[in-house]
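Hi C.,

You asked whether I'd gotten around to modeling the 367-residue construct. I have! Everything is below, sequence then structure, no commentary in between.
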Amino acid sequence: MNATMRRVVIGATAVSMALSIAACGKAGDKNNDSGSSSSGGGSKSIGLLLPDSVTARYEKFDKPYFEAKVKELCSDCNVEYANAAADANKQAQQVSTMVTKGVKVIVISAQDSAAIKSSIKAAVDKGVKVVAYDRLAQGPVSAYVSFDNVKVGELQGQALLQAMGAKASPSANVVMINGDDADPNAAQFKEGAHKALDGKVKIAYEQSGLWKDTVAAEKMSAAITQLGAKKIAGVYSANDGMAGGIANTLKGAGISTIPLTGQDAELAAIQRIVAGTQSSTVYKAYKPEADTAAELAVSLLQGKDIKSTASTEVTSGSGDKVPAKLLTPVSVTKANIKDTVVKDGLYTVAQICTTQYAAACKAAGLQ
């Protein structure tokens, strides 16, 4: 082969190699840009949007349990996380941000179940699957995981009656501090509580505490002013955060002998139960709920059927029929702390029985 011919062959080979490399590069870029490939961009990203950081469970339990289960089920999946800090507008923006990032499935505990509807629809219109977590958001969600929330309210009401004992009568004044009306769970808790309490006690004062201890404390103070400190036989608080504010108000008013409910089995609430300033809470095991949400999210991401996981159907506030998994809540009183939150490893005895609660723990049989 002469020199001229050799240069032509070498040149043609170089061009061919360059075209092959460029073609591979473009194919790879296409996968990365589209996000549709399982190995590119945000195609294996799952969004987790929680409503607030005031409720202790979300940051301490739900988030880490969810992330760990996703990683177990899908080692190369990643979780994009954001907290709405009790701001519905902020959460709507977070949904939009997740979509822009290429997240394919969003798991959301709605700050405002109705307000988030348009954001969910916009996300779904762009091919994103949405799982409603703990709170049933309105709009075209693909699945929902929570607890039987009417049952939660019933357990709260029943525990209050049990703690009131012989004082529970149709003329006994009970104060009800419900959750935020923007949260559909609040209405279900309220429904269940009324189912247990109506006709057995007198609901003498009922207001929303907006899931805030400060608001609940103000409402409790107003109830005391309206009814009189000595004429209140029991207090229904929809969750433990509010119960903390209510307990402080009761203490300030010199009221120390009436039962007070709660929900979420927060550490501070368990300690109040030990100390006798709160009579009960409701334990909704966070891990099974977070694990189920992760299973649903990964299945939806991978295009798998979810009927075996979400075998129940519920109807949201927007009229959408949603496949659901509803878990069973458990009432917690001083008598079963060991058999519930301690047995499940939610808290250790040492975490509950700090120096301040040592004597009360000993009396309760925890030490």
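If it helps when you're writing up: The longest helix spans residues 3-34.

Thanks,
B.
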